[in-house]
Amino acid sequence: MWLLGLPWALALLVSVASSGPSADAPDPESIFADLSAEELRAVRTFLMGRPELGLSPSQGGPLAKNSLFLVELLPPKKRSALRFLEHGGPRPRREARAIVFFGAQAEPNVTELAVGPLPRPSSYRLLAFKGGRAVPFSARPMTRLEYELLHEALVAAMAPLEPLLLEATGFGFQNCSERCLTFSDIAPRGLGPGERRTWLVIQRFVEGYFLHPAGLEVLLDHRDPDPRRWAVRQLWYNGRYFGSVRELAESHARGTLPLARLPEPPARHLFSSYEPRGRFASGTPTDVHGAKVCEPQGRRYRLRGNRLEYGGWSLAFRLRSSAGLQLFDVRFGGERVAYELSVQEAIAFYGGHSPAAMQTKYMDAGWAMGASSYELARGVDCPETATFLDAYHLLDADGPVRFRHALCVFELPMGVPLRRHFDNDFQGGFHFYAGLEGRALVLRTTSTVYNYDYIWDFLLYPNGVLEAKVHATGYIHATFYTPEGRRYGSRVHSHLLGNIHTHLVHYKVDLDVAGSGNSFETMDIRFENISNPWSAGARVWGEQGRGGTGTRCPWADPTPCPRYHLAVTRRHENEPSSSSIYTQNDPWDPPVTFENFIRDNETIEDQDLVAWVTVGFLHVPHAEDIPNTATPGNAVGFFLRPFNFFNEDPSVASRAPLIVRPLDPPACSRLEIQRWTPPSAGACVHPEPFSYNGTYRQV
User: Fold this and answer.
1) Strands, DSSP E only, in 500-572?
2) What PROSITE patterns does the annotation carry (predicted)?
3) The pLDDT value given to residue 348
4) How far is CA 448 from CA 69, 318, 376, 475, in A?
């Protein structure tokens, strides 16, 4: 059996794609590969040429148009994939998922299509959500065009406030080429279905502008497809609400408005920048390179297209534009243990005194967090030794966009042994010492969703353990400081409030342990008080394990809102994801509601099961989050661990252990050292040969 840190084991840490192989590539795992640039272009060309769709280019033109928003791989159905992978069945039809915004019609909506076969598409069909739910036009994600129009509308609306803004901040909106103001937008965009009213946080456009709110927040209604009908509905300035731009401007003109004057930002060493400032008290040199990862005998993993092999592991991977990393056909020792392991959603719920802060409930799949996979820096984001891979996305664009070095793969020394033992002879020496160095293979990408950066890792260990992990870093989502805001966060700078928030991340784990027919079991531990069998009248306290079955729902509300760490459901093809890119802008009535996955109360014994895992942490921002939140202490994840699946630790197959035995105990002056790797690791590590003593003597 495999534990999912409950059964693989769920242990919470509380504290691709390149261009991809073509459709006729020989590697079977290529059925899971992301679409190549050529395939993305072919899908767009085919759909743009269909007169009944009436598609216009994504960029430019009006909002009220039909346009192609997203194209990505539509994974094959599991039954077809397994028939091909295991039984020599036909290769599954390769298809794309295409999202079309139909805005140029009486009843605007969002429609999803399956397009194929690739690489030369010739037909399409409708893709329906469970229950046949339609996607309203108001639930669509934001586009570059809508942001451009939003900025134009905001600049025009703020004209009467230019004197106020220049006096208070030294920055403005009008005819601006430098010393400009900008904005960050908040979601959900309203308080009920069909709304598209967004609170905009006005900020000074300097490096790290997320930490430079101007004290002004604006509610702009942009539901109508015609931007000429957009309007400012409300404003908040320095703790006070105003019903119109005119009301706020007149208050300033009368001199009755308490003005929040911001200091002039310095030309250098701005607090929101990465420029070095100050010194470590210890005098540690930081202007030289520190420790590095090296591969003294070359790479020990194999990467072929989207197939990755390391030790006993093999898997296929892809980087979905919509939601990020997705693993398929995960095997250890040639036996499948999971059909799919994927990121589903990342949520951040905020509290605050200002309207923007109290409204913020970010659901990052709605911002296409998979397509926010910008270039990884060699030597910082990944070791210099890593293999870097490009990704291609077609999202809100008129052709494929190459994201250079969007993923990386590398072997990582863990800095702690996988296992070790010093066998003491209790006479100042030892019987033997043995240890196996700890290493793991890391598959990594990042999502920079505006202010926040998520670092997504899957780690493969040689003992059959897989770890899913995410680090949170980047700029905190901060608002303007007011005394009332202290209830909802910390004052992290003179005019800046770091708002309290909760990070929650959701994963899908489709375990196939010794086949697809699995059951779910938990183990509870309790103390028992029993009679001591070898001492009459004495009592012994011990621990007793109890097994049980059951499931709880981590995404039980349509937002979706997490309640529990783990839910287990029957697998269904029409339940591929627990969230969608539409939930952010319509959390009240989304097309995907996870609670519906568990309402049917199906049996989960000897069935094809999916474990839905939620991990997260509470973040109370503090001054040390300036300029950015640091990764230590801000990481969560879970482990998949084998539990009585093997006869012994499978890492015994590694030829990397070290064994030291004394030849003359208890003197231990002559040692036998057993290694199965070269005596020297190479020039990138300590040049002296290995030595060991092992004795402990009185001096």
Assistant:
1) 501-511, 522-531, 539-548, 566-570
2) COPPER_AMINE_OXID_1 (PS01164), COPPER_AMINE_OXID_2 (PS01165)
3) 96
4) 20, 18, 11, 10
Minimum mean pLDDT range among 292-306, 549-563, 657-671: 549-563
Closest C-alpha among 520, 613, 522, 607 to residue 572: 607
pLDDT for residue 24:
41
pTM beyond 0.85: yes
CA angle 159, 164, 170 (to 5 degrees): 100
CA R_g for the chain:
29
pLDDT value for 16: 35
Could you tell me what percent of the chain has a pLDDT over 70?
A: 92
> Sheet of 181-185: strands edge to edge?
181-185, 197-204, 213-221, 231-237, 240-242
**Choice between 1 and 31, residue whose per-residue pLDDT is larger:** 31
Triad 356, 359, 361: Cα angle to 5°: 115
CATH number of 144-254: 3.10.450.40
Asked whether 328 and 306 are in contact (CB, 8 A), the reply is no
Residue count of the chain: 699
Phi, psi values for residue 262, rounded to 5°:
-100, 140
User: Do the domains at 28-127 and 144-254 have one common CATH topology?
Assistant: yes
Catalytic, out of 329, 364, 453, 457: 364
Quick check: is 452 catalytic? yes
pLDDT at 21: 34
Specify the pLDDT at position 595: 86
**Separation between Cα atoms, residue 257 and residue 259, nearest integer Å:** 6
CB count in 10 Å sphere of residue 520: 21
* Token output for 428: 């100042």
Tokens of 365: 């799949």
Give the domain ranges of the chain: 28-127, 144-254, 301-344+368-417+442-475+500-527+559-651
Spatial separation of the C-alpha atoms in residues 599 and 554, rounded to whole Å? 13
- What is the separation of C-alpha 44 from the centre of its chain, rounded to a whole number of angstroms? 28
Whether 212 and 231 have beta carbons less than 8 Å apart is answered as no
- The number of angstroms, rounded, from the C-alpha of 530 to the middle of its chain's C-alpha atoms is 48
pLDDT of 13 above 50: no
C-alpha distances in Å from residue 379, one per residue of 178, 239, 383, 388, 628: 34, 44, 5, 12, 19
Residues 14-65 pLDDT 10s: 223 333 333 344 588 899 999 999 999 999 999 999 999 999 999 999 999 9
- pLDDT tens, residue by residue, 175-224: 998 999 999 999 999 999 999 999 999 999 999 999 999 999 999 999 99
Which of 433, 452, 461, 475 is catalytic? The answer is 452
- 301-344+368-417+442-475+500-527+559-651 is a CATH 2.70.98.20 domain: yes
CA distance from start to end of the chain: 52
pLDDT of 544 > 70? The answer is: no
Q: Which residue has the tokens 């942490």?
A: 617
Residue whose entry in the numeric block shows the structure tokens 């568990």: 598
The pLDDT of residue 522 is 85
Architecture of domain 28-127: Roll (3.10)
Q: What are the two backbone dihedrals, phi and then psi, of residue 87, each rounded to the nearest 5 degrees?
A: -125, 10
